[in-house]
Amino acid sequence: MNPWLIFLSAGLFFAVLILSVKILLMKKSAKEIERSMKEKLENDTNTLISISSSDKDMKALASSLNSELRILREKRQKYVSGDAELKKAITNISHDLRTPLTAICGYLDLLEEENLSENGKRYLSVIGERTETMRLLTEELFRYSVITSKEEPLKPEEVSLNDVLEQSLAAFYGVFSARGITPEIRIPNCPVLRTLDKAALRRIFDNILSNAAKYSDGDLKVELFQNGTVSFSNSAKRLDKIKTERLFDRFYTVETASDSTGLGLSIAKLLTEKTGGTVSADYRDGRLFVAVKFAAKPE
After folding, report:
1. In the chain, what are the helix, strand and coil shares in percent, each to the nearest 5?
2. Which whole-number Å values give the CA distances from 185 to 160, 165, 207, 231, in the listed order?
């Protein structure tokens, strides 16, 4: 065999071998970067991406990603700091509003005992209604700040979803009647039991029903399933797909002039997730569907 051919073959063999080793090392570095990047994004850590490879291109990639991680970390810290300040401000504002509102309500009660003219009574009634609205909004702000601050621990116990849902529906009977809504209710006879905080569960149902009462076009269907899913649906022409996607955002209201902080469904979502459940909203054929699910824990 021609010695030059042998030399060329040997050279190609070693070139392929070196190239294969280099590719394997690059793949190893890519996997290290992938694992490290996933860890940095999932966990709040100050560590940066490091790789075992000395390849300058892979090291350059890791360096570039580290620069982006630093920027992301700064933005995350600003967000967390701003979010904490917002929650603190909400708590302080709600506390500051509670005292004068309590005093106003007390004086309004005293005024009702006075001998007022018909116009005076009408004015007093309007003031009383608006003051009560302010009081409820303030309480909603306060409850939101308490829930998000994690200062209120849950008290799980075995509860029947059937019973708590029936209690919430009964509490809203007057509200629904005033709006001409006759709910279609389907609750199984067999109890659906879960280990949850009863007060939190009641608030979840209450907030969803309150939203339905405000924005329903005159109907409401509530159904409890054996798998722990509770479905609420109503016609809602004022909604659409885009608005529905924002329903659980804090401070979002469908109507800017409505007497709402936009925290009702946001609180329902927070509490649902805090208790290990899931909540979702969908809009189909002019109807809003809100589903809350509390899956049974595996034994």
Report:
1. 60, 15, 25
2. 16, 10, 17, 10
Which CA distances in Å does 279 have to 124, 125, 156, 208?
A: 41, 38, 19, 11
Which residue type occupies 1?
M
Q: Which residues does the chain have with pLDDT short of 70?
A: 1-2, 4, 7, 44-46, 80, 83, 87, 149-152, 252, 254-262, 297-299
Cβ within 8 Å of residue 38, ≥6 positions away: none
Decide if 116 contacts 124 (C-beta within 8 A).
Answer: yes
DSSP secondary structure code for residue 216 in this structure? -
pLDDT score of 1: 57
Question: What tokens does 178 get?
Answer: 């005033």
> What's the sign of the alpha-carbon dihedral 190, 272, 262, 242?
negative
pLDDT of residue 257: 45
Cβ atoms of 203 and 243 closer than 8 Å:
no
Residue 108 · residue 121 · CB < 8 Å: no
H helices present in 43-117, as ranges: 56-112
Which pLDDT score is estimated for 107?
81
